Amino acid sequence: LHWPFSGRLHAEIARIAIFGLIFSSLTALWMVASTFDLLPGATDQVALSAEVSGQSGFRLGEIEVLRATPVDRLRDLSFPLAGDTSDVFTLSTDRGAGYIDQGTGAVLSWTEASAWQRLTETIYTLHTGRGAAVLGLILGLMALSVPVLGVTGVLVWLTGRRGRPRLSGMSPASQAGTVVLVGSEGGSTWGFAATLANDLRATGLTVHVAPMKDFDPGLFRRAERFLILASTYGEGSAPGSAEGFLDHLNGRMKIPAAPFAVLGFGDRSFPAYCAYAEAVAQTARDRGWVELMPLGTVDRQSPQDFARWGHALGVALGIALNLEHQPSLPATETLELLSRQDHGAEVQAPTAILRFGLPKSSLWRRLTGQGFAGFQAGDLLGVIPDGSPVPRFYSLVSGAGDGVAEIVVKKHPGGLCSGQLMSLEPGQTIRAFVRTNASFHAGRERTPLVLIGAGTGVGPLVGFVRANLHRRPIYLFFGMRHPDSDFLYRDELADWRSLGRLARLVTAISRGARPHYVQDALRLEAAQVVDAISKGAKVMVCGGRDMARGVSDAMAEILAPAGLTPAMLKAEGRYVEDVY
Known about the structure:
By secondary structure, the chain is of the alpha/beta class. It is built from 17 helices and 20 strands.
């Protein structure tokens, strides 16, 4: 799940509390049924087995049966009517019920509790925790989870709404001729959707905009076309507002008669460029959904790409459509560079470890874990370079608890953002924001981790080792050019090995007398890798796409004798990549 902190908290609490809440609900229903005599045996009456004395006034504190009944076993005590000497005390306990003479204090009759009544007593104890302190504490905590779930649920809803533009003048779902479906993670795709919807309305078309995850063909009875704007999350996964769409499309959904068109949003520097949009278009075609026009793509929120697709859409619809959209910058914070460590100059690969101070976060952000108040290693630092509205993303080595935003940057020839970052000196600042990358988090499990990275890709992997306070078994495969030049975090890794945070470090040197790469190191350590995976290990790969491809091929060879493949591990969430 790629949710913000509030969403993860909501899910974790619900996962635990659901059992207690269901239990409390069922026992409460049983007690209600018992109260209204709806259970078998609940209406059994106690018969008088002795004559009533006809007297009154016996002192309550001297009635032996009452003195012998502990308060925690007392369920009910009914007093006789005033002035009626023929009436009696009625006593009910967890063990039975009976009548007591008000004049003598004698027990006139007693009936032991039936099997149904004893079961009700047990359920009463389980529901209230009365007489069972530990159980009562657990049930109390479960009850306290309800308001917490309510608050976090509202936060999840607000987070889902955040980033969506306010759309006015939209037609109801049942009346719209054009339906725009949006799959967005960070919110930028909603901005493009708003521009498209407004320009289509200006031509006289009726438009309705909705998240992809809420798609139901039955709601759009007058739809003449469906326009699907979809970004890609991670390695080709659905973004937040499109979760479940493909499953729904692959299921028993009735395919609409109105045609569809898909526009994908992504970044060509990543291997999974518009992969989710491609999967949506292909699945729709496979299901027999008529395509209005071929798949279009927008690279790095390019207004020009969007305008070109809009022109083609206008031609397909027979209207003049000139889409002019200026992407809005995400909300950024100013970060000051605290320190830098330079490497790689000797092998013509200038690289730096940059540590930025964190901005002050509001109490609300700290409570909800938003932005710089709640990030962790593996999340992304979005940096806005001077002269460009498009952010560049760098994997974070640190977490919010480390007190810094730490990244590893390599200077690329002609690279706008990397060039600016590599020229920074302590005290200078950048504009940046945090984007959650939940698919590349180490998690809190105790199963082993197999971490594979080369060059700057070792950054977030080092962050996982640094945070491994519980000494989870971690095996790190680190590829570099030369140990005297770009052995990043050499001293820290040695310290962490001595502290037990890193079980094994295997380096691969690509320049030297015997050059080899991380995939070669993996093959040499095949037995240990397979053993770790057999124990439930998660494999995490970070670095360039060529390296990742070589690692995948090596892993396929290593896993084959065990009847496994990288694809099988990916399906289980045990093989993840952060590739650029």
